[in-house]
Amino acid sequence: MKLKISEVNEKDRIIKLDNDNCTLQDLLNEVGKDAVETYGYKLSYGYPLKTIVVGDDNINSLLSTLNITNGDKIFLRDAENKKVKQDPISELISFKEKTVSVKKVPDDNSCLFHCLSYSIYGNMNYSTQIRRQISEYIKNHPLEYNDPAILDGKTIEQYCQWIEDYNSWGGYIELSIIPRIYENVTIWICDIINNYIDKITTPTTTEKYENDINSGSIFYQNQIIVLLYNGIHYDLIVGPVDGQYNFRFDDNEWLNKQCYEIMEKYKNRTFDSKRVEIKCKQCGVILVGEKNVSEHAMKTLHYDFAQL
Question: Which among 219, 224, 220, 251 has a CA at the least distance from the CA of 70?
Answer without folding.
Answer: 220
